[in-house]
């Protein structure tokens, strides 16, 4: 059994990038579907459909299309939205993978903005269905093992 | 779907810090339950329980020797999971590359609009 304490300590995927643009502009790139459509899906995937209602409880829906025509929908909700500060969204993607993402906005000075992405991927298995402690598994837990092996 | 079920088991198995420590130890070579229990402040039966989870997830295999049943790290299933993980990291990096490009375009659009 997982304890609450272990859950609190579980390592998760963290990723940062500094953009040469003010916070207001970076926020704008997240806030409109026409912009999100242009960057959120990495090439060669395209985004034929995109819906962004950037406020707490709002819909964040997009369809990613693979080069072979297969469409992968991402059906998410904004769990928390604090303008120019923080975006939290929860999504279910292909294969029943649950993704909880927090994006924090910070000034880096000289008109630059840093985005810190903190992401948890989890799976539900038949054995753990219904039990919150079953919503386990993160990318960095793997990374931790990889590091210890090297 | 089979692959994603494998991943579910793998991720669940790896969610526990003791099991990750056991794997890290086995990555250096085979070990028996007794050997594995030594560095941990938990009983052999508790270790055996963790080993069962790891075995079910395909992350380890057990030897045939009835007495010792040495444990071996099975790298194949583990690699599947790390490859999956790396895909998602790469995904974010590639998206942020595109965001950089978009922000440059947005800045140019705005400065053009301001000049008008």
Please outline the helices and strands:
The complex is a heterodimer of chains A (about 150) and B (about 120).
Chain A: H1 4-9, E1 13-19, H2 23-31, H3 33-39, E2 46-52, E3 59-65, E4 71-82, E5 86-93, E6 97-109, E7 112-122, H4 139-149
Antiparallel strand pairs in A: 1-7, 2-3, 3-4, 4-5, 5-6, 6-7
Chain B: H1 2-14, H2 17-26, H3 33-37, H4 44-56, E1 60-62, E2 71-73, H5 75-115
Antiparallel strand pairs in B: 1-2
Helix pairs in contact in B: 1-4, 1-5
How would you describe what is shown here?
The complex is a heterodimer of chains A (150) and B (116). Chain A is an alpha+beta fold. Chain A has four helices and seven strands. Chain A has one domain: 2-Layer Sandwich (Alpha-D-Glucose-1,6-Bisphosphate, Chain A, domain 4), CATH 3.30.530. Chain A is 22% helix and 43% strand. In chain A, strand 2 and strand 3 (59-65) form a beta hairpin. In chain A, 21% of the residues are buried. Chain B has helices spanning 2-14, 17-26, 33-37, 44-56, 75-115; strands at residues 60-62, 71-73. In chain B, helix 1 (2-14) packs across helix 5. At the A-B interface, strand 1, helix 2, helix 3, strand 7 and helix 4 of A face helix 1, helix 2 and helix 5 of B.
């Amino acid at each position: 059994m997982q304890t609450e304490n272990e859950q609190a300590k579980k390592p998760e995927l963290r990723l940062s990038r500094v953009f040469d643009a003010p916070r207001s502009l970076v926020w704008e790139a997240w806030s409109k579907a026409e912009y999100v459509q242009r960057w959120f899906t990495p090439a060669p995937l395209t985004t034929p459909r995109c819906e962004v209602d950037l406020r707490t409880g709002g819909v964040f829906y997009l369809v990613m299309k693979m080069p072979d025509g297969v469409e992968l929908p991402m059906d998410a909700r904004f769990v928390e939205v604090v303008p120019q500060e923080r975006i939290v969204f929860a999504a279910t993607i292909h294969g029943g993978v649950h993704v909880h993402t927090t994006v924090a906005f910070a000034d880096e000075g000289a008109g630059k903005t840093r985005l810190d992405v903190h992401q948890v991927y989890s799976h539900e298995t038949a054995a753990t269905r219904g039990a919150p402690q079953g919503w386990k598994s993160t990318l960095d837990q793997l990374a931790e093992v990889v590091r210890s092996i090297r | 779907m089979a692959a994603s079920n494998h991943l579910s088991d793998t991720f669940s198995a790896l969610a526990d810090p003791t099991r990750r420590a056991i794997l890290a130890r086995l990555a250096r070579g085979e070990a028996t339950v007794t050997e594995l229990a030594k560095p941990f402040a938990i009983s052999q039966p508790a270790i055996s329980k963790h080993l069962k989870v790891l075995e079910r997830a395909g992350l380890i295999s057990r030897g045939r020797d009835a007495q010792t049943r040495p444990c071996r790290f099975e790298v194949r299933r583990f690699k599947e999971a790390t490859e999956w993980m790396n895909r998602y990291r790469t995904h974010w990096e590639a998206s942020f590359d595109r965001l950089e490009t978009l922000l440059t375009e947005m800045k140019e659009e705005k400065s053009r609009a301001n000049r008008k």
